């Protein structure tokens, strides 16, 4: 089974890109949610370099890597490497949708990448693989994606923009299939079948078309989580709940872990504002992890995160010049 990897990447520090965004933002800013335009959403802290190192170190079986960008390229990237390709928005998105500053919009066009495998992984540049894994971490032998979701106890009418979009996905699947999937995405590297995305684009064509043509994120967008819910509702996906001990381990090790407050997560989101990233990694022992920037992060937080990544993934990858 061929498995590709797609990254969403933007260099928010690029003056030309910022000028384009600011010019377009002036037309729409008053109508936008703060989450859609927060600077942390576009920050470039050089995480992609270390994410690629983690891929080469722990998942070298990935066939091809695509980096989806807006007329940008990391200065250190070796684009001559035959296993990596830069995909510009203009190659996969309709002209009327550009320019776009919405990841939700771009994600609905990923299946248009020329040559993209049926089975692929979708990642942001702040996601990493912490230990060696095999393809069955993401797909079953039959090619079904393993859908990693976490529990959600919040009210379904939560005002948060992201959670509004998730609720919409859940509700649409319930309307069409009579199944309400109460779990939500865990924000890390996700597995997809290209055919599932295309089926959802056909089923929800109107709202998908509207989402693609929005230049900034909106409460009314259809989030790609609907594809995960679709795969579960149709039996094409396998649910893996994120919990403290969701990787196989003995009963004795579970008890020991509980007593020591040391867990065994498939995946963990870590805010870079945490005082010690190392302590969180030690406690949760994740296979996948995300170092999430945010509105409360500062330069010192980013410096600590960079130091952690340099220590964790010191070996230069074949994708670097």
Describe it for me?
This protein is of the alpha/beta class. The protein is 36% helix and 16% strand. It is built from twelve helices and eleven strands. The chain has helices at residues 15-28, 34-37, 47-58, 89-92, 103-107, 161-177, 194-203, 205-212, 225-233, 251-260, 277-284, 299-312, and strands at 3-8, 65-69, 84-88, 119-124, 127-129, 146-150, 184-185, 190-193, 238-241, 267-271, 288-292. The strands form three sheets. The chain has a five-stranded mixed β-sheet. Strand 10 (267-271), helix 11 (277-284) and strand 11 form a beta-alpha-beta unit. The longest helix is centred in the middle third of the chain and has 17 residues, at 161-177. The model has no long low-confidence stretch (mean pLDDT 88).
Secondary structure elements and pairings:
Elements: E1 3-8, H1 15-28, H2 34-37, H3 47-58, E2 65-69, E3 84-88, H4 89-92, H5 103-107, E4 119-124, E5 127-129, E6 146-150, H6 161-177, E7 184-185, E8 190-193, H7 194-203, H8 205-212, H9 225-233, E9 238-241, H10 251-260, E10 267-271, H11 277-284, E11 288-292, H12 299-312
Parallel strand pairs: 1-2, 1-4, 2-3, 6-9, 10-11
Antiparallel strand pairs: 4-8, 5-11, 6-7
Helix pairs in contact: 6-9
